[in-house]
Amino acid sequence: MIIELGHFALILALPVAVLQAGLGLAGAARGDWNAMAAARTAALAQFILIALAFATLVHAYVVSDFSVLNVAENSSLQKPLFYKLTSVWGNHEGSMVLWVLILSLYGAAVAWFGDAMPPRLCARVLGVKGLVAIGFLLFILFTSNPFLRLDPAPANGQGLNPILQDPGLAFHPPFLYLGYVGNAVAFAFAVAALIEGRVDATWARWVRPWTLASWCFLTVGIAMGSWWAYYTLGWGGWWFWDPVENASLMPWLAGTALIHSSIVVERRDTLKSWTVLLAILTFSLSLVGTFLVRSGVLTSVHAFALDPRRGVFILALLVVAIGGSLTLYAMRAPRLQPGGLFAPISREGALVLNNVVLAACCATVFIGTLYPLFLDAVGGPKLSVGYPFFDRTFVPLVIPLLLAVGIGPLLAWKRGDLLGALQRLWAAFAVAIVVVLIGLYVERGGPVLAVLGLGLAAWMAMAAAVEVADRVRLFRAPWPEVWRRAINQPRASYGMSLAHFGLAVTVAGISASAFQQQRIVMMHLGDQTQLAGYTLRFDGIGKHDGNNYTADVAEFTLLDGSRVIAHLAPQRRFFPLQQQTVSKTSIHTNLLADFYLALGDPDGKGGWAVRAYWKPLVPFIWIGGVIMAFGGAVSLSDRRWRVGVAARRAARAALPARGSGA
Question: Is domain 1-153 classified as CATH 1.20.120?
Answer without folding.
Answer: yes
